[in-house]
Amino acid sequence: MIKADNATKRFDDITAVDHICAEVQNGSVYGLIGSNGAGKSTFLRMLAGILAPDEGEVWIDGEKVFENTAVKNRCFFISDEQFFFPNSTPQDMKNYYRRFYDKFDEQRYFKLMSAFGLDETRKIRTFSKGMKKQVSVICGVCSGTDYLFCDETFDGLDPVVRQAVKSLFAEDVAERGLTPVIASHNLRELEDICDHVGLLHRGGILFSRDLDEMKLGMYKVQCIFGAPLPEDAWNGFDLLKKEQRGSLYTITARGERDELMAKINKMNPTFCELLPLTLEEIFINETEVAGYDVKKLLF
Ligand SMILES: Nc1ncnc2c1ncn2[C@@H]1O[C@H](COP(=O)(O)OP(=O)(O)OP(=O)(O)O)[C@@H](O)[C@H]1O
């Protein structure tokens, strides 16, 4: 388990990370979301033991992270600003990581390089931004670490590769209990992968919640009626959102699923179905309830 206990980092008069207390359970996928400058990269670097806290502490499975080689051997950091040795090839980087990480899986590296269509003997500086990211991701998952810290890792990847990377992460989470912590300013990029999301704002964690918990008791329903409904038709519902286009309504409401559907069916819709809620919708609704306007913080 990763634990930040009042973790604080200052750069001169800027407090980039401000007394953060947070926990990341092993085997979960933690999304760290926040606008530009919120402190995501700094916090991620503290979790990975790259930056020392000025105040507070970061622990991994009860051990301090900073300057702890044994703990660092269990962590891989995929930086937003890609780091490769000058003039290096993927093969050089693989050999470097193989020396550092005891559990580096070389066979898997070969397999993934070929699956992603990357030439391991070509100079990385000649690769595109997305290809460089792919090399980092492949080295990251092949290092066999327990924790993977990803800073804007999906940014710049095309949709097919993004999905492939998400599948790789999901496979490692399921098969060997990997714990990825993924920082992004875009909630949509964390869709389908995170089970826990923390919202960072001005260096502090505003909100940290389990997605299944957030989804509980919140439903989105699309229904069509013979004619537009009167204004007071939805009065008996705990509505979070209502959209209307003629006689087509899309509502997001709190409540118990069967009770909600029974109430709508009593209104005699010609069509009615439950729709899945997007991560963005869940998050917006939930943070509104907690008193924050997430649209102002993220979009
Ligand atoms: N090395 C540094 N020296 C001085 N200030 C820094 C340094 N690194 C970060 N900061 C400041 O700390 C604050 C948080 O920066 P950080 O990079 O952690 O934010 P972020 O949430 O990752 O932003 P982005 O989404 O834009 O990458 C910002 O105000 C930034 O200017």
From TrEMBL:
Key words, A-Z: ATP-binding, Nucleotide-binding, Transport
ABC transporter domain sequence ranges: 2-227
Gene3D superfamilies noted in UniProt: P-loop containing nucleotide triphosphate hydrolases
SMART domains referenced in this protein's UniProt entry, alphabetically: AAA
Top-level taxonomic group: Bacteria
Molecular function via GO: ATP binding
PANTHER family: ABC TRANSPORTER ATP-BINDING PROTEIN ALBC-RELATED
Protein name in the entry: ABC transporter ATP-binding protein
